[in-house]
Task: structure prediction
Amino acid sequence: MENTNKIENFEENIRLKIRNKTVLNKTALNQYVKWGALSLINFVDCRFEEIDFLGRVINFCKFKNSEFNDLNFRKCQISKCTFEICRIVKSDLTRVEFRNCNFINCEFLQSDLSASDFWECQFVKTTFKNSNLNFIIVQDVKFWKSNKWIEIKDESNFEKILKDMNLISTYEDEMDNS
Result:
């Protein structure tokens, strides 16, 4: 166990830390991309706008208190990343492969997540509003709800479970509640 903590501390120390930055295009983000991947970076209080990051690899990154607007992350592979207090707005996340990611206090607003995969991900206080969740595949996903983990082993009723947990809403739901 002690060796595991040393490895985690080492990884934390080698990370590039970026604070209070607005990234407005792919060129600005490319300065952090090495070998076709965005890796080992902590983004805090950052804003990402109109970036086309089609098919890229994003791994071992942390995003805290950040906002993503109008992104194209189609076919990206996102693994071992943490998103904490993040808003993903009007973004194309179709066919994204999320592996071992954590979403804590996040919102997906008017985003397209259709045909995306979520494998071994965890969600805490994360909601999906007016987002497309068609054809999502999930495997071993956990949601924190009422002080306990709710596990979803397969994709068979992902959208229904989210709706039952009040983690998903549509325009029609919002109109009914007003």
Q: What stands out?
A: The first strand starts at residue 16 and ends at 19. The helical segments are 2-14, 26-30, 158-164, 171-177. The chain has one domain: 2-177. The chain has four helices and 22 strands.
